[in-house]
Amino acid sequence: MKSGDYYVVLLHDHSEFLEECACLINKQWKRSLSARIQSLEKSYKDLPNSLLLIENINGTKKVIGHSRLSRVLEDPSGCWIGSVVIDVEKRNKGYGKYLMQKSEEYAK
After folding, report:
1. 57 with 5: CB under 8 angstroms?
2. What pLDDT does 77 receive?
């Protein structure tokens, strides 16, 4: 994992990654692609939203991670981080830790 080869974006700002993100999540948790896309389209600047970990290799961008931030109904200042997934080929290399750190920073 090299710094600068990857970065985190909000899905609602980068809809070009919508289907790729849905496919990544579906590799971990099976669901129809159209249902997954419909769920992801509910990502907003405010909660709920989805953060994507993007890998950029020689200008080729690929979604390698996802986390979803949602409101905690009982706690207006609270946030739930869920649906955290890293591409199988990228696991155990620090990407999950990086995505969780960025998710926590965003939640604050």
Report:
1. yes
2. 80
